[in-house]
Design a protein that fits this description.
Helix 1 packs across helix 8 (212-223), helix 3 (63-77) packs parallel to helix 4 (100-128) and helix 4 (100-128) runs parallel beside helix 6. Helix content is 47%, strand content 17%. It is built from 8 helices and 9 strands. The protein binds NADP nicotinamide-adenine-dinucleotide phosphate (NAP). The site of NADP nicotinamide-adenine-dinucleotide phosphate (NAP) has 30 residues, from helix 1 and helix 4.
Length: 243
């Protein structure tokens, strides 16, 4: 039971990697504050997860809403030991065709959302002089990707915030790391054409897409005390896609 007694706030916890992570963390003894803006998906997930999965409808891009919801989580569950900034969206297009709204919308969730919720949670961690913050980046945040100006900017920004916060919060006993997944089977990638999947698989040394549980296991390691001397890092979990 690597997470016994730990309360873990996961954003985007109703689907994909967030869902797999919540399930895995519960198996290891954690209580989950499951945050998502998809209320129906949260309710569906709850049926599978049981009593340790507490639902909080939250849009991470809304600064004040996030602050209020974090207060409620603290009042319900007493503390937040681990924050996983996992919620994310894509709105892909070539730069010349990318509407301003689509640029802003992706930054609002993937970058500003991470700022909003971390700013709301971290004072409680500072008070307790302990905590772990994990951020969802992506291999494309390091290496770039055609058609993803908005998404890449957000995921590169997340790496910058991860390193900054690792330095800023270390004196409070708070570790901050990011995960950079490769190409993972989730609802986010479910509409990618088979042709593109085949191409990505051919470029990946392990020769296949990753499973959500494989990313969840990496988050679990970084969240646990086994990673007590790791901070400010970006862990690639990508089947060797970028080596
Ligand atoms: P996913 O299946 O689409 O799950 C993301 C969850 O976040 C969904 O439940 C989504 O709700 C929710 N969400 C979106 N916007 C939100 C908001 N404003 N406030 C609260 N919740 C919100 O995606 P995933 O593939 O598991 O991705 C999880 C994270 O890993 C993302 O940050 C993603 O960028 C990153 N990542 C994924 C891959 C991959 O290949 N899948 C690769 C690299 C990085 P809706 O379903 O209603 O949109």
């Amino acid at each position: 039971m690597r997470m016994k007694g730990k309360t873990v706030l996961i954003t985007g916890a109703a689907s994909g990697i967030g869902f797999a992570m919540a399930k895995r963390f519960i198996e290891e003894g954690a209580v989950i504050a499951a945050c998502d803006y998809n209320e129906e998906a949260l309710e569906r997930a709850k049926k599978e997860m049981g009593d340790f999965y507490h639902l909080y409808k939250m849009d991470v891009s809304k600064h004040d809403e996030v602050k209020e919801m974090v207060k409620k989580i603290i009042s319900d569950l007493d503390k937040i030991d681990v924050l996983v900034n996992n919620a994310g969206v894509t709105k892909d297009n070539f730069l010349v065709k990318m509407p301003e709204n689509d640029f802003d919308a992706v930054i609002a969730v993937n970058l500003k959302g991470v700022y909003n919720i971390t700013k709301a949670v971290v004072p409680y961690m500072m008070e307790r002089k302990s905590g772990v913050i994990l951020n969802a980046s992506s291999v494309v945040g390091i290496y770039g990707n055609i058609g993803q100006t908005n998404y890449v900017a957000s995921k590169a920004g997340v790496i910058g915030m991860t390193k900054t916060w690792a330095k800023e919060f270390a004196r409070y006993g708070i570790r901050v790391n990011a995960i950079a997944p490769g190409f993972i089977k989730t609802p986010m990638t479910s509409k990618v054409p088979q042709k593109v999947i085949d191409h990505m698989n051919s470029k990946t040394p392990l020769g296949r897409m990753g499973e959500a549980i494989e990313i969840a296991n990496a988050y679990l390691f970084l969240a646990s005390d086994e990673a007590s001397y790791i901070t400010g890092q970006v862990l690639g979990v990508d089947g060797g896609l970028v080596v």
